[in-house]
Automatic annotation (TrEMBL):
Site (Reversibly protonated during proton transport) location in chain: 64
Entry annotated with the keyword Ion transport: yes
The UniProt record lists the keyword Cell membrane: yes
Membrane-spanning segments: 6-34, 55-79
Function: F(1)F(0) ATP synthase produces ATP from ADP in the presence of a proton or sodium gradient. F-type ATPases consist of two structural domains, F(1) containing the extramembraneous catalytic core and F(0) containing the membrane proton channel, linked together by a central stalk and a peripheral stalk. During catalysis, ATP synthesis in the catalytic domain of F(1) is coupled via a rotary mechanism of the central stalk subunits to proton translocation.
Biological source species: Algoriphagus hitonicola
Listed name of the protein: ATP synthase subunit c
Keywords: ATP synthesis, Cell membrane, CF(0), Hydrogen ion transport, Ion transport, Lipid-binding, Membrane, Transmembrane, Transmembrane helix, Transport
Length: 86
């Protein structure tokens, strides 16, 4: 009984950690790709640099918000698996 509970909690903690890592990797790759594509498009069309930069910053902020939300969910799963009740 106790080993089953500990095993379940361990799997939940491991899943939360892996989930948070995947979120961080995905956000880093997404923002890196946005930055690279924005620099490439600014190099091709310098007169549109202001609009490109504005759009790039808005999209990067949205990616950060989604990744922060996902990390918070992973932390809530980890805290709940650890026996902390809200």
């Amino acid at each position: 009984m106790l080993t089953s509970i500990l095993l379940t909690a361990g799997f939940a903690l491991m899943g939360a950690g892996i989930g948070a890592g995947i979120v961080a990797i995905g956000a880093g790759l997404g923002i890196g790709r946005i930055g690279g594509q924005a620099m490439e498009s600014i190099a091709r069309q310098p007169e549109a640099a202001g609009k490109i930069q504005t759009a790039m910053l808005i999209i990067a902020a949205l990616i950060e918000v989604v990744s922060l939300f996902a990390v918070v969910i992973c932390l809530l799963i980890a805290l709940n698996a650890g026996g902390v009740a809200f």
